[in-house]
Amino acid sequence: xxKYAAKQLNLSKDTVSxxxxxxxxxxxxxxxxxxxxxxSKSVPDAQNYLDKAPKVAKSSMSSLFSSAGAAxxxxxxxxxxxxxFKKLGVSSExxxxxxxxxxxxxxxxxxxxxxxxxxxxxxxx
Length: 125
What we know:
Blueprint: H1 2-9, H2 13-30, H3 33-42, H4 46-52, H5 60-65, H6 69-88, H7 95-108, H8 112-121
Helix pairs in contact: 1-2, 1-7, 2-4, 2-6, 2-8, 3-8, 7-8
């Protein structure tokens, strides 16, 4: 999956792995525990990808979002992804391709429900 996405997007495997971890982190934050567990079961080494996601400092805006309920949680996720992808050198134009690459891989690997849940967890993008 990582090798395929790296080739498609002309990015390094390390960058794609960390990007996937970032997307998984945000999906995890926006899905209930059972739904994220289904994605985790479908993705070999999901925790490894989560561990590769860049650590970014919360902005003052992000801190405000965390107290604003579900909409704030989504805004906080978007703020995190913007910072993480900037740190990784991934352009905003590449993000939809990353999401489609990962969800497409899950879909083709007979994990249609996990692919749909991943998109659901990232639907605000």
